[in-house]
Amino acid sequence: MLIHIDQEKCCGAGHCVLAAPEVFDQREEDGIVLLLDAEPPAALHQAVQDAAAVCPAAAIRLEQV
What we know:
The chain is an alpha+beta fold. Helices cover 23% and strands 22% of the residues. It has a single domain (2-63), classed as Alpha-Beta Plaits (2-Layer Sandwich), CATH 3.30.70.20. The strands form two sheets. Strands 1-4 form a two-stranded antiparallel ribbon. The longest helix has 10 residues, at 45-54.
């Protein structure tokens, strides 16, 4: 799995961080998503899929590799 984020779309809701804190974080100044691991291990794939599903701005795109 390869994760792509669009910081321009991100609204800073933080749902991704709650779903997968090992993979996503937020910038301190404005809450915009930060990607910590673009290719997370298989054990985190479900959490990443959940994060993408709950993103209100659709700023997370997942690619199967």
